[in-house]
Specification:
By secondary structure, the protein is mainly alpha-helical. Helices cover 43% and strands 8% of the residues. It has one domain. The protein contains 4 helices and 2 strands, in the order ααββαα. Strand 1 and strand 2 form a beta hairpin. The N and C termini lie far apart (56 Å).
């Protein structure tokens, strides 16, 4: 993957980017990647399959495609569907024979 360096960025711009990243729950690197990805995808002739790979730490993850083929990117958290898919992959068979949640809660309440 290529590295890009931008020099002599005015401090006001850098601070505005930091604040924007914080509002979007991203690192500065993640925010800049999202801006670049949006700019590349808005180019005429750009295709969703030509998008740069995402999913590295701090850069987000494409979770689908919206109108016009633009990627829907999640930053800093996982969707419910992603969590469920990970748990199903990690635990393909249901756990049988363990205590029920209600029993654990009752035992905890009774111990106080």
């Amino acid at each position: 993957m290529a590295n890009i360096s931008v020099k002599d960025v005015p401090e006001q711009w850098a601070e505005a980017l930091r604040q924007r990243a914080a509002r979007n729950h991203r690192s500065l690197q993640g925010e800049l990647m999202a801006i670049l990805e949006r700019a590349v995808m808005d180019e005429p002739g750009a295709s969703a399959t030509g998008a740069p790979p995402t999913g590295r730490a701090g850069t987000g993850q494409i979770v689908g495609y919206g109108a016009g083929g633009h990627p829907i990117i999640r930053q800093g958290w996982k969707t419910v569907e992603q969590v469920v898919a990970e748990l199903k992959a990690k635990y393909p068979e249901p756990f049988v024979g363990g205590p029920l949640g209600v029993d654990i809660i009752r035992e905890d309440r009774d111990s106080r």
